[in-house]
């Protein structure tokens, strides 16, 4: 920088930014922000050399400035509490017996298989004790999100020390016997995992969810104005795409109506066996990066405990004061300036206070401390003494009494009651959950005088219902719509009649629906952030939905999986209260992509969802708008599920009146008697459909068959609840064998038009008696083409379906052969027409169902 200053001119720009005054030094290729007052000389008197010195000094102040935040007595107690947390953390990783080391440590006292992670643990214990201090001092409503994947021993240990663990798990008492049980259960068969999990009180974020911690933290802070979410971010975690994007979440946090997020970037330098990027770049570069993301970082760096305690206490104090000042200025002084929220960068050795060297290799401060830093097993008998020495270095006799209880002088450092981070009700969101005020969805019904008589856009109709949901719950502030800039595209724009998109960054002319506070969070083009925000919102006791293009919901496959696993475990924990379901609306689906092309054609999220536990997942494919309204009303009222709803946004025929739709959706599957003609005779073929487009094509095929083969007996079955196809022994929504056979028969051919990949239906029904199932769905064929041609390319169109029926029913004879030839001729005619005109044939776009079940009749009318 010095050379740059010598070569180039520079300028100093002062900007008013309450409650601080900020200086920006702007030079070619270099920018930094300093607080006013950090530069001690007037800008016009600074030489390049002096400016460089002043800047370097200011940059160092955030990490070296020492204030007397702690009294010597308090510092001593906090250090002792930290030692106690480290001790119980190590005990969890290693010990099976002898928790207080009252007798010489033996190999038999050590778990036969030691599994755990130590590297991040001492840093997280250090953070926890400092957060406890400010919670008590300021009576804060705060809880802790642990981002580093496998620091479970730290969180479990701290929740135990504060007393919450014993309250929830009474067999783990706060004495020697309880400590032994605490140690024994950790990463042990029948016990708890080595990472933070639903079993950990105070947690909304699992260790396997690497990269989502900051997104979850922001989701928790939305609409919680008194809450502070302390989010610890591992420097390995910071390298994930989700976390790297999540730094921008501060542009969506309103200091008036939302709470605050305090990120604590824990730089301990290593991942499993590699260094971390943010720990290896220069201080200046890291600070520029964080400030460029809109944060004010405070640095705490070192390895000497006494100094680090003072530095950390000062940094945390400054961060809390900053947060309160920003919120006060916004709430009391109507300051609309976007805050540059504080964050803390804690740089400490990996495996801090652990073994320095083992067998000639450095452990502390290296990647070797990431997991188990000291092997203690029959192959390493000498390490038993090393483990004993390590554990005794924390002087447990000064921390716990003879019975194994934390001594009162230390126990008093923890907050009390719900102020304990392990007992914070926001981290068990069902405690705070209030039912949504639900409007009557039936007032939004599409008028359907007869099946297929009108067209409507399903998600457009749903948008008006969601608008009313948002309006009814405005004062409760417990409902939001999330999505990656697709709310308007998916035709849910009616919600903007009563609310806005939340957006705290700069606005310019021609922006639409942007405001510092709103019920819609769709202004960030990141499925990962929207998913993380929504999960954090739900986990802390609120309601919402995620609307997305069907193909691109696949981006969050892993995030969905982790949430489903979280819910599965929570259902086994009586103390975990039920939360609102995670609701997905997948629109802009595979069958009508206009000119988006092959990349936008992927219905595979359904396959991924069905892999999860039957107690958790639900999948709905309503055939029309009235069914969509009924389904979504149900989903928004449900608890502890993941509901996936697939619906179209393009105008399609409407089949059921609202009364009929409610009955059909309640049953989840049923025979459409008005489309069938087998009431008085044995069925020849079953025509089944699931999804709006397959329903259209199946019914169109039925109309052709009934016109040309009037003696053919056809049963039409529509499926709304996909899980009805699975056996009742495998899914609670599934049909039993008698019910399935009654609908689908035991031996008749079933031509099944399905929205997604055909093999999913085969997978759900493979145990059923009737093996004559022929599924037509998406088979990875697509391009930029017309909607009907997409169906043709995948054999889901009416012409292919008619041919399929003829092929399965040889008794149709020559009548079937002639009809099959007509269908082949239609396919050729279709191909020539779209190649010439660029759109589907009028007989396709204007088709409607006639009362007698044939394809005769007038074009469809559009619903007003």
Regarding quaternary structure, what we see is single chain
End-to-end gap: 67 Å
Tally the beta strands. 26
Give me the number of helical elements. Answer: 27
Q: How much helix, percentage-wise, in residues?
A: 25-40%
Extract low-pLDDT stretches: 1-46, 857-864
Structural class: alpha/beta
Largest sheet features = 6 strands, parallel
Protein described:
This protein is 36% helix and 14% strand. The longest helix is centred in the middle third of the chain and has 29 residues. The N terminus and C terminus are likely disordered. Helix 23 links the parallel strand 24 and strand 25. Helix 3 crosses helix 12, helix 8 crosses helix 16 and helix 15 runs parallel beside helix 19. The protein is of the alpha/beta class and 864 residues long.
Question: SSE layout and pairings?
Answer:
Elements: H1 2-7, E1 11-17, E2 20-27, E3 30-35, H2 48-64, H3 72-94, H4 121-138, E4 141-146, H5 152-161, H6 164-168, H7 176-185, H8 213-221, E5 227-234, H9 241-246, E6 260-267, H10 277-280, H11 283-292, E7 296-301, H12 305-333, E8 342-347, E9 357-358, E10 361-362, H13 383-392, H14 408-411, E11 454-457, H15 458-472, E12 479-482, E13 501-502, E14 514-515, E15 520-521, H16 527-539, E16 543-549, H17 557-570, E17 582-587, H18 605-610, E18 617-620, H19 625-637, E19 642-646, E20 651-653, H20 658-667, E21 669-671, E22 685-690, H21 692-708, E23 714-719, H22 737-744, E24 749-754, H23 758-765, E25 773-776, H24 787-793, H25 798-808, H26 813-837, H27 842-845, E26 861-862
Parallel strand pairs: 4-5, 5-6, 6-8, 7-8, 11-26, 12-15, 12-16, 13-14, 16-17, 17-19, 18-19, 22-23, 22-24, 24-25
Antiparallel strand pairs: 1-2, 2-3, 9-10, 11-20, 21-23
Helix pairs in contact: 3-4, 3-5, 3-7, 3-12, 4-5, 4-12, 8-16, 15-19, 19-20, 21-25, 25-26
């Amino acid at each position: 920088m010095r050379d740059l200053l010598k070569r180039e001119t520079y300028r100093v720009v002062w900007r008013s930014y309450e409650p601080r005054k900020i200086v920006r030094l702007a030079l070619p290729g270099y920018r930094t922000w300093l607080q006013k007052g950090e530069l001690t000389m007037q800008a016009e008197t600074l030489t390049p050399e002096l400016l460089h010195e002043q800047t370097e000094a200011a940059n160092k102040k955030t990490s070296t400035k020492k204030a007397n935040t702690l009294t010597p007595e308090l510092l001593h107690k906090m250090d002792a509490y930290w030692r106690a947390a480290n001790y119980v953390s190590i005990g969890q990783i290693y010990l099976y017996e002898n928790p207080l080391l009252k007798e010489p440590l033996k190999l038999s006292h050590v778990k036969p298989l030691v599994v755990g992670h130590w590297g991040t643990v001492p840093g997280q214990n250090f953070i926890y004790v400092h957060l406890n201090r400010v919670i008590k001092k300021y009576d804060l409503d705060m809880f802790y999100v642990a981002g580093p994947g496998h620091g479970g021993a730290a969180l479990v240990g701290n929740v135990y020390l504060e007393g919450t663990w014993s309250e929830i798990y009474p067999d783990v008492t706060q004495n020697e016997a309880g400590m032994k049980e605490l140690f024994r259960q950790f990463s042990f068969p029948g016990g708890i995992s080595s990472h933070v999990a639903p079993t950990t009180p105070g947690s909304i974020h699992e260790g396997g969810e690497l990269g989502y911690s900051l997104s979850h933290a922001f989701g928790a802070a939305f609409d919680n104005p008194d809450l502070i979410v302390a989010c610890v971010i591992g420097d390995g975690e910071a390298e994930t795409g989700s976390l790297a994007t999540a730094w921008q979440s501060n542009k969506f946090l309103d200091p008036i109506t939302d709470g605050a997020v305090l990120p604590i970037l824990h730089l301990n330098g290593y991942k499993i066996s590699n260094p971390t990027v943010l720990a290896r770049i220069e201080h200046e570069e890291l600070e520029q990066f964080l400030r460029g993301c809109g944060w004010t970082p405070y640095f705490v760096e070192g390895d000497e405990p006494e100094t680090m305690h003072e530095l950390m206490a000062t940094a945390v104090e400054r961060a809390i004061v900053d947060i309160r000042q920003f919120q006060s200025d916004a709430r009391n002084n109507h300051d609309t300036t976007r805050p540059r929220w504080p964050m803390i960068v804690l740089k400490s050795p990996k495996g801090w206070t652990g073994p320095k060297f083992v067998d000639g290799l450095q452990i502390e401060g290296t990647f070797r401390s990431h997991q188990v830093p000291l092997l203690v097993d029959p192959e390493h008998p000498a390490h038993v003494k090393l483990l004993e020495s390590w554990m005794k270095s924390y002087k447990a006799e000064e921390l716990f009494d003879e019975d194994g209880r934390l001594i009162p002088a230390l126990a008093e450092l923890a907050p009390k009651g719900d102020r304990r981070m392990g007992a914070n009700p926001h981290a068990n969101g069902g405690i705070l959950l209030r039912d949504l005020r639900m409007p009557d969805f039936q007032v939004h019904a599409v008028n359907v005088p007869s099946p297929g008589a009108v067209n409507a856009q399903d998600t457009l109709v749903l948008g008006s219902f969601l608008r009313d949901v948002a309006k009814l719950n405005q004062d409760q502030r417990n409902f939001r719509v999330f999505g990656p800039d697709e709310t308007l595209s998916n035709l849910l724009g009616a919600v903007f009649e009563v609310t806005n998109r939340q957006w705290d960054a700069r606005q310019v002319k021609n922006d639409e629906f942007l405001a510092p506070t709103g019920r819609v969070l769709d202004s960030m083009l990141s499925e990962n952030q929207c998913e993380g925000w929504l999960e954090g919102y739900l986990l802390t006791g609120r309601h919402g939905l995620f609307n997305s293009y069907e193909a691109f919901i696949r981006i969050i496959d892993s995030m969905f999986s982790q949430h489903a696993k979280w819910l599965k475990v929570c259902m086994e924990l009586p103390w975990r209260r039920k939360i609102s379901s995670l609701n997905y609306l997948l629109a802009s689906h595979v069958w009508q992509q206009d000119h988006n092309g092959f990349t936008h054609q992927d219905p595979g999220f359904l396959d991924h969802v069905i892999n999860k536990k039957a107690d958790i997942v639900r999948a709905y494919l309503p055939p029309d708008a009235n069914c969509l309204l009924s389904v979504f009303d149900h989903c928004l009222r449900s608890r502890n599920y993941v509901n996936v709803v697939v619906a179209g946004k393009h105008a399609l025929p409407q089949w059921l009146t609202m009364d009929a739709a409610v009955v059909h959706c309640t049953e989840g599957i049923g025979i459409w008697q008005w489309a069938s003609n087998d009431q008085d005779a044995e069925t020849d073929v079953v025509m089944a459909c699931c999804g709006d487009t397959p329903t259209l094509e199946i019914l169109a095929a039925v109309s052709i068959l009934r016109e040309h083969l009037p003696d053919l007996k056809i049963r039409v079955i529509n499926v709304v609840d996909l899980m009805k196809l699975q056996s009742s022994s495998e899914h609670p929504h599934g049909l039993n064998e008698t019910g399935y056979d009654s609908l689908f028969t035991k031996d008749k051919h079933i031509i099944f038009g399905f929205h997604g990949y055909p093999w999913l239906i085969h997978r759900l029904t493979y145990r059923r008696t009737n093996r004559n199932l022929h599924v037509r769905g998406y088979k990875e064929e697509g391009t930029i083409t017309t909607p009907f041609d997409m169906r043709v390319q995948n054999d889901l169109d009416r012409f292919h379906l008619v041919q399929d029926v003829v092929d399965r029913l040889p008794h149709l004879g020559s009548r079937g052969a002639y009809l099959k030839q007509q269908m082949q001729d239609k396919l050729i005619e279709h191909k020539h027409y779209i190649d010439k005109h660029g759109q589907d044939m009028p007989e396709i776009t204007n088709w409607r169902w006639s009362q007698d079940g044939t394809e005769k009749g007038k074009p469809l009318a559009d619903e007003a």
